[in-house]
Amino acid sequence: xxxxxxxxxxxxxxxxxxxxxxxxxxxxxxxxxxxxxxxxxxxxxxxxxxxxxxxxxxxxxxxxxxxxxxxxxxxxxxxxxxxxxxxxxxxxxxxxxxxxxxxxxxxxx
Length: 109
Description:
CATH architecture: Orthogonal Bundle
Helix content: 40-55%
Distance between the termini: 25 Å
CATH topology: Recoverin, domain 1
Number of strands: 2
CATH class: Mainly Alpha
Shape: globular
Number of domains: 1
Strand content: 5-15%
């Protein structure tokens, strides 16, 4: 499964382009621009599985750094500040990582 089987390639590209500048990333706006916030819970969970590159069942801070690159190879990495902000916004149980239900809640918020 690929991200483009769930989201349009054009929407993904436009969303990534929007956040080319360091410290500009907004997960809410990104999820809206790429179309993920309007997808079904199953589709959001499928995207989570793709983003969970080590298949641990969680998206850890190290994986968040490469978040945009999972959508478009060659995109910039997220800064440490962006990663920490993303993590703290989603990590409801404060275990230092984002689980699938936390990701779903974040995308749908």
